[in-house]
């Protein structure tokens, strides 16, 4: 018996690449997401991390069925919803909600907060006991806004408050899963923590499963019980938060972690508790139109060998890793990372 609520198997999205004039024709495909497997458990917070363009947003939109996958499957509570039509999707759509990065762009400027938050209830014909207005006021309170601001417009609120409005709207249908796509990256750093804390409270109190998309590991660390790291359309590592932060096995995770400035856990005094290597990856992320053969990370990896160009490493549990901690590397990092090691990579040393 599994408590997985939202599962992706081999999930793939290739956007057609068109060129030519006056008649456009397909000249290739952007391999935004390429055969990823992931399982989000009921009530958990699952972080999805990676650099810009690695396919996080596309994954979020596929999971919420805002985008049609090119291949693969999505299951919600055991039911295959990959190709579910509008009618079959309607009840599921209310249970899987999305919060977007830009709180302003995602709120209709001509609607009052009351109407915005009530919108999903209207669309789905839901009439809560006590009426929609009372429910909206309650939701505004839940997200830390003044219910008396019911008749105000989005421009009258700060960025953090607007994101709270977006969160209230996402909560209106009592979702079981919320996919939050970079929900705090457009906000001031001082406000970010408040919004993350709100999401954490909601996850704890309402038992909502969260897929929290972020480009850096620092934000996800405060919120996620499990974390998946993406690179160029693939998941390269997934595992419990502590496994990922303290014992990263994939070189890319290692490099991402080295950008986290502060100690990973101030309270942790174990020798492996803090990772402080400074790894500067050489070069840019390759194009998702023609990704490298074999391991997609190999062109930037200091460990790359011949095998990496010909054999794609499977996402598996490396020797010495905890259960459920999987990585996709032929030469995983040692199981325990020494404290305060300084790794300065010389691009000239790369194969
Ligand atoms: N509608 C589209 N048509 C063509 N290519 C697309 C489309 N949407 C995304 N892409 C491409 O797919 C790749 C993955 O994009 P995606 O937005 O999922 O990445 P991301 O990791 O969320 O990045 P960011 O943090 O910058 O949003 C990128 O190369 C992007 O340019």
Describe this entry's structure for a reader:
The protein is of the alpha/beta class. It has a single domain (4-18, 27-107, 173-349), classed as Rossmann fold (3-Layer(aba) Sandwich). It has ten helices and eleven strands. The strands form two sheets. A seven-stranded mixed beta sheet has the order 6-7-8-3-9-10-11, with helices on both faces. The chain has a four-stranded antiparallel beta sheet with strand order 2-1-4-5. It is globular. The N and C termini lie far apart (46 Å). The protein binds adenosine-5'-triphosphate. Adenosine-5'-triphosphate binds next to strand 2 and helix 1.
CATH architecture: 3-Layer(aba) Sandwich
Number of helices: 10
How many strand elements? 11
What's the CATH first level? Alpha Beta
Computed CA radius of gyration, to the nearest angstrom: 21 Å
Q: Which structural class is indicated by helix and strand composition?
A: alpha/beta
Overall body shape? globular
Family: Belongs to the ABC transporter superfamily.
Organism: Streptomyces luteosporeus
Keywords: ATP-binding, Nucleotide-binding, Transport
InterPro entries: AAA+_ATPase (IPR003593), ABC_transp_ATP-bind (IPR050319), ABC_transporter-like_ATP-bd (IPR003439), ABC_transporter-like_CS (IPR017871), Oligopep_ABC_C (IPR013563), P-loop_NTPase (IPR027417)
What's the layout of helices and strands?
Blueprint: E1 4-19, E2 25-41, E3 45-49, H1 56-63, E4 71-76, E5 79-80, H2 86-95, E6 96-99, H3 113-123, H4 132-142, H5 159-171, E7 177-181, H6 189-206, E8 209-214, H7 217-221, E9 226-231, E10 234-240, H8 241-246, H9 251-258, H10 306-310, E11 326-327
Parallel strand pairs: 3-8, 3-9, 6-7, 7-8
Antiparallel strand pairs: 1-2, 1-4, 4-5, 9-10, 10-11
Helix pairs in contact: 3-4, 3-5, 4-5, 5-6
The protein binds adenosine-5'-triphosphate (ATP).
């Amino acid at each position: 018996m599994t408590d997985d609520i939202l599962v992706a198997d081999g999930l793939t999205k290739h956007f057609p690449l068109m060129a030519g004039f006056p008649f456009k024709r397909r000249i290739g495909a952007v391999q935004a997401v390429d055969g990823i497997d992931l399982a989000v458990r009921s009530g958990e917070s699952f972080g999805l991390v990676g650099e810009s363009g690695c396919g996080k947003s596309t994954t979020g939109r596929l999971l919420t069925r805002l985008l049609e996958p090119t291949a693969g499957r999505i299951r919600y509570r055991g039911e295959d919803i990959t190709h579910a039509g509008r009618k079959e999707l309607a009840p599921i759509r209310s249970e899987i909600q999305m919060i977007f990065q830009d709180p302003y762009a995602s709120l209709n400027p001509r609607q009052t907060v009351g109407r915005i938050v009530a919108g999903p209830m209207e669309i789905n014909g839901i009439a809560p006991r006590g009426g929609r207005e009372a429910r909206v006021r309650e939701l505004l309170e839940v997200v830390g806004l003044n219910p008396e601001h019911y008749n105000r417009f989005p421009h009258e609120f700060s960025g953090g408050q607007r994101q709270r409005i977006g969160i209230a709207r996402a909560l209106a249908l009592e979702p079981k899963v919320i996919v939050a796509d970079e929900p705090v990256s457009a906000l001031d750093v001082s406000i970010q923590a408040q919004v993350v804390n709100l999401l954490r409270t909601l996850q704890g109190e309402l038992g909502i499963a969260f897929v929290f998309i972020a480009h850096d590991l620092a934000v996800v660390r405060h919120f996620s019980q499990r974390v998946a790291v993406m690179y160029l359309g693939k998941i390269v590592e997934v595992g419990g938060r502590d496994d990922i932060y303290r014992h990263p096995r994939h070189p890319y995770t290692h490099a991402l972690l080295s950008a986290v400035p502060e100690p990973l856990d101030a309270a942790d005094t174990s020798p492996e508790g803090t990772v402080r290597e400074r790894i500067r990856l050489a070069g840019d992320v390759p194009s998702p139109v023609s990704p490298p053969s074999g391991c997609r990370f190999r062109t930037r990896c200091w460990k790359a060998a011949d095998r990496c160009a010909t054999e794609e490493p499977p996402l598996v549990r490396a020797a010495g890793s905890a259960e459920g901690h999987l990585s996709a590397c032929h030469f995983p990092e040692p199981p325990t990372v020494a404290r305060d090691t300084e790794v300065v990579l010389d691009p000239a040393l790369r194969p």
